[in-house]
Structures are given as C-alpha cells and as structure tokens.
Amino acid sequence: MDIQDKTALVTGGGTGIGRAVSLKLAERGASVAVNYSRSEAEAEETVRMIAERGGRAIAVQADVSRDDEVRNMVEAIVREFGTVDLLVNNASITRHIQLDDLEAASDDVWDVLYAVNVKGMFHCARAAAPLMKKNGRGAIVNVGSIAGLTGSGSSLPYAVSKAAVHGLTKSLAHALAPEITVSSVAPGAVATRWWEGREEKMMQLTRQMPLERLASPDDIAKLICDVLEQEAMTGQIITADSGQTL
C-alpha cells in the first residue's frame, strides 16, 4: 500500500533500525508514532529529526510486553493521527549467553525475551488490526533475524524467539488476510551501536561475507518500507544479510 499520508507505528523507534525506519517512513510521507519503552531521549530525538525534515511524528511510551500499555499507546496514536495504517514491530531485546551454556538460559531469560520479542509483537498487531480492517487495508512488518533461521546468535533463547517471530508472521498473515499483509524482514549483522568496541570482530565477520559489508540501518529501513508497500505479498520471511547465510 502507498505510504504517503498513512499513519505508521514503529516500536523501538528511538535507535538503530527503528530510528532509520521512522525517518524513512516520514520521508515517504507517513505520520510516524515512535514507540519507546525506556529510551525516551532517543525517541524524542527521532521525532525532532523528522520534524526538522518537514514530517509529522510523536513519541509514545509503552512496554510492548504489557498488553494494557500497548492498547493505551494505540489509543493515544488514534487521538493524535486518527488511525494506524502501518505497523513495524521492531522492538526486541536479547541476552548475551554462550550457545552451549544451557544452564545460563534461565527461565527468567526465556520469559523476558519471549514477552518482548514474541508476545510484544502479537500485542501490537492485535491492537492495530481492528483499525486497519476498518480502513479496509493495512500492512505489518515484523523484524526477525537470521538467528531465527540458523539457530545461532547472541543466545539460544534469542534465536528461538526470532524463529517464533517468523512463525507468528505466517500465522498472522493467515489470520489477518485479506485486508492486512504481514511479512517479516530478517536482518543479519547490522552496523548499529551494538558493535562499538567490537570493531575487530566486525571486520572478521565482514571478510567472511560475499558482499564484505554489514548492512546499515538504512539498508534495512528501505527494505521494510518496500515490503510495507507490497500488496501481492504476505507471510514471507525476507533475509537481508550481505550473504551471511548464503
């Protein structure tokens, strides 16, 4: 669907991929609700950047793992912009645990990663879907990860949670059709602040990739916007990883 003059909600929109998506959506003519849980200053900075470029945006707080906060957030967006047409489920967290250290993958780690990474995306989709259906059209992109495809990554619970995001994407694509498209973008390593102080490891990784570069947040943002605009595609998991999994 055409992004121009639509209203978009981007979760975790204050930093990294979320900020890049928020800026790109505004550049394409959308009004943007920039969600944050704790990164208020970063979200407000994203809003300021959009406003400086002539766009419309607000920052809205909600812990996506809490359904009541998500519903209140969507109500606030409706009060400001009238509806929600586009949803980018970007908010995610991880815990860095050696993959073979099963004892460190405690119940608490599993619970918090699933609450944010999986249930959080479901909460947002459930809250926004009635508005999209009322409008007769909507689009959702869930940000997955190649960790959900390979089974490896920053921790075992993180990889499994991202595999669940990919499964959620397919189930929502069935549940919300035909009015709403739902697909997932699965990035590989992305050049965000997470790599600060780990530049040598980043260089080692890029040398192993066919394209010999990490994706930038802007690379992923452009792809997400393109996927939102595709009206003949749903339930797809699209990888963007510079050939990392090739």
Automatic annotation (TrEMBL):
SMART domains: PKS_KR. PANTHER family: 3-OXOACYL-[ACYL-CARRIER-PROTEIN] REDUCTASE, CHLOROPLASTIC, SHORT-CHAIN DEHYDROGENASES/REDUCTASES FAMILY MEMBER. GO terms for biological process: bile acid metabolic process; fatty acid elongation. PROSITE patterns: ADH_SHORT. It comes from Bacillus glycinifermentans. The keyword Kinase does not apply. SUPFAM superfamilies: NAD(P)-binding Rossmann-fold domains. Keywords: Oxidoreductase. GO terms for molecular function: oxidoreductase activity, acting on the CH-OH group of donors, NAD or NADP as acceptor. The keyword Oxidoreductase applies. Belongs to the short-chain dehydrogenases/reductases (SDR) family. Residues 6-193 form the Ketoreductase domain. This is 3-ketoacyl-ACP reductase. It holds the Pfam family adh_short.
